[in-house]
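fwd from M.: "can u put these together and see what the complex looks like"

so here's what she sent:
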Amino acid sequence: MYDIVIRGGLVVDGSGEAGFKADVAIQDGKICEIGQGLAAGRREIDAQGRVVAPGFIDPHTHFDVQLLWDGAAKPALEHGVTSIVPGNCSLSLAPLKAADRKAVIGMFQQIEEMPPEAFTIAFDWTWEDFAGYRDAIARTLSVNVAPLVGHSVIRLFVMGPAAQERTATPAEIAAMQDLLRECLEAGAVGLSTSFVDVDENGRPVPSRFADSDELDALCAVLGEFDRMLQVVPEFYATDITIARIDQLAELSLKHKIPTTFSPLFDSRGNGDNAPRAIARVEEQFARGARVWPQMQTRPIDLSFSLLRPSLFFARLPRWVRVLRQPLAERIAALKDPQTSAQMIEDAGPDGGLAMLGSLVLRGGDAAPPELTGQTLAQIAEARGQGCARALIDLSLEHGLDVAFLAASLGHEDTARIGPMLAHPLVHIGASDGGAHLASFATYGDTGYLFSEFVQKGHLSLEAAVKKITSDTADIWGLKNRGRLAPGWAADVVVFDAQGLARGEERPVFDMPGGGMRYTRDATGVDTVLVNGQVAYADGAYTDARSGVICT
Amino acid sequence: MTDEDAVILNAVVAPGHDGAAELVVSLRHPNGGLETVALDAELGFHLMKSCGVASAADLPGKPWRRILEGL
């Protein structure tokens, strides 16, 4: 008798081949047999009318700290994600000397918007080395974790404060090589670095002080292990991104390593960006280099409040003038009847209905919770005001701490993005799961892949599954994951092909200290198994702690 | 402005990677080369101020080197 049999589903095994109806038997944490009419299991899961696929793999997350109190990386698991890669963008929580914790916390807060309580009340720091961090998270994992080690923390460990002041000496580079080697031996799946990020004081993060000799030396160590280099390039400038693609290609060829960069997204006003980058990637792959661009599936929303000047108003001169004033003067100007009347006039003869009416009140801030999710047009109508007047008054009533969202303003053209996601050299990723907590929800990109791009015919069901399972595992060298085949890890998601999607974004207050983040629930996911144990079923997480550090 | 200055061709507001509004500026260099750069709010407003415009719509035609003023 098997441990578990998932019976009668459409097996989409991650290979990209057509799905087929079969049972999937699981024994001792692994796929044991796939076929029809298999013998009974101690637990039977009815998958009639459902898809049975390998668990999804998210290659770009920042769950480093959340994993210390939440081994399920919620809500990633309920979206069908069974393996995650944290430690991106040059930042990880190890190796890290006790004296440097404050500096790295500051970087996480700045770059990933994590509340300070997440680092001070939710866990005990018990480690300095990578193995110590690995062991600290491994005790309660419900998802599999393939951790990167951050270049910035390696630099900080070796150089101390000088890591943000200068290039490294040959001796320091050698010490960084030794430290990276130690991390890779302890389970790191690669090195992450950044060419763009800054800390909470606006200073470049340590990795940005590295010269090419240092990066080359570290890649030589990656080459010893055939491990990944992840990079954040200067994505705001296409030409520099292309130069980075070339640089990564040389490192890939010289050291025989895979490399990946993120984000790559389709931007209004720069429609050539992604196509040009992908064209360069094609050229470099043709030379034998491995440079995988990571592209997210979800559109990019624009959010703002009147607390800070936002370029959202860049075409409204009087709004710009008012919003760029210091806070006290800004509030006074907004309260001034003549000034606000002029601003409203700028918003159009309809009182801002066309320009502002579709803005959505985000919630999680000082605004009344019952307004969360309503459009400004709805709110304005209820208040008996025009949209611009409602925006100003509502903001003033709550100390300007009222966030609005303009949905899907970037990376939103499915007809353009679908073919890019389907491109064999484009790596679906860049979700940033566990980051940007107070700005937007970084969850549910996998569901959106199916609800938007599969439903609209840009990828087949089988191609979409392959993209976020076996392709990801192959790119990252994750062994025995990403496919449903005998002997492979039993990471499995059972879902409704028609119903798989992401829920609406909503604020929740589940961070340590009651901190807020935006999240999304999953729809259409029935059951998620991690290493042969049911970790999520029927809308609830189980007590299973079967996740592992996977390499 | 001289013949050796890059010129702003277009400026469009778009959401950036972090969900904040960015100013995506298209440039034409003196050698004919085209380039696109995304500026965050601080730099975007700085560019507008340096160019003496109150709206991003008035940026086209202005010299790109103005962004250096006051930095």
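replying to her w this: The mean pLDDT of chain A is 95.
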